[in-house]
Design a protein that fits this description.
α1 crosses α2 and α2 packs antiparallel against α3. The chain is built from seven helices and no strands. About 70% of the residues lie in helices and about 0% in strands. The chain is an all-alpha fold. The chain is elongated and about 50 Å long.
């Protein structure tokens, strides 16, 4: 019975994603990225679905797409495109994106950051962490 319910849930998410639901598209990307719920890990499928969600303005997907471009994960590495996606998220006030771009306010007397190192660390952590966040979201 569990397998039938899992298959129904999977089909429901996929149908919503194919109909253009941004959160469902991000969930499909997350399932492929993490290899969960019967999905095999497929970075290219993950990138494709995340990009669809990001293009609709889903903040978490924008950040994941930026990190995937930074790493070349499922898509060709492209720092310029990564920066553009971080810029979109930063424009919405996304703290990590602001930090990655070096646009957050530093307190007076604070130590300078190596933004390139921060960006590379973030690009390794963001895809999986945000994929888990996306999967925990429910449709409104």
């Amino acid at each position: 019975m569990v397998h039938a319910e899992e298959a129904d849930a999977k089909a429901s998410v996929q149908a919503s994603a194919e109909q253009g639901d941004a959160l469902a598209q991000a969930k499909m990307g997350a399932l492929y990225l993490l290899g969960r719920d019967g999905f095999e890990v497929d970075e290219q499928q993950a990138a494709g679905w995340m990009l669809k969600a990001a293009e609709q303005g889903l903040l978490e997907a924008e950040v994941v797409v930026a990190a995937m471009y930074d790493r070349g994960l499922g898509m060709p590495q492209n720092v310029k495109k990564a920066t553009q996606w971080y810029e979109k998220a930063a424009a919405k006030g996304h703290g990590a994106s602001l930090a990655i771009l070096g646009k957050n306010e530093a307190p007076k007397g604070s130590v300078g950051f190596n933004y390139q190192a921060i960006r590379m660390r973030a690009s390794k952590q963001i895809p999986n962490e945000y994929a888990k966040k996306i999967l925990s979201k429910t449709n409104k």
